[in-house]
Amino acid sequence: MIPVTALSIRRLAFALAVAAGATFAAAAIAQTPSTGPVSVEAASVRKLLEQKFQGAFIGSVGKSPYFGLYEVLFDEQLIYTDAKVSYVMVGSVFDANTKKNLTEAKLRSLNRIAFDSLPLNLAFKRVKGDGQRKLAIFSDADCPYCAKLEDELKSIDNVTIYTFLFPIDQLHPDAARKSRIIWCAPDQAKAWDEFFTKHALPANNGDCDNPLAATSALGSKLKVVATPTLVFADGSIVPGALPAARLESELKDRTAEAAKK
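Predicted structure:
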């Protein structure tokens, strides 16, 4: 372990997300700390983190089952630290036997939302096959990883996809204009598909009422910091352009998990 600064933590987080196939957004992150009972030592860890990383959001703090370290929701990610906050680890812990990413699973659990609470009127809908499975996507028209995801989705069937237009102005200054034009098309799903397959936009000025401001606010509320960001039926939030095989696996597992509720 090596000492790091708050800035280096954010840079490492950016590198990890891009490697996973995501474009980071310069969006505000509205998170709520956990309210369960906290040990005296965990409270001390929180206080030390707040002193050393002023301005960073410190969410849940708890003892991890790994190496005696504490597991902390720091801004949009999980980090690990010792009781004296002398060192901070950024990265994922894997189960060597099952190869499961334990950090990702814990973060997904902490960030899970109620899928049915999503304001789906802010999204356009595509139905493939019987449409029984559900998937919501926050997507940017000019995001290369979003284009990659659309490619992967071609081989996925039996799913209803809700797409929230989430342009990132800081990275893609023309994405908002394109999003408005696509939203104003008579068939939004067709316009979206043709934009990615033919690089063609509908013939309109994009001056109809659109949900972009509301979608931006929704993304901030749900801690969406990357495009594409996927929300599965059980409320799991996963950033990045997942390959088709992983998408199919997640849809199967997350649909089964949602059915248990």
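Summary: Residues 94 and 101 are 4 Å apart (CA to CA).
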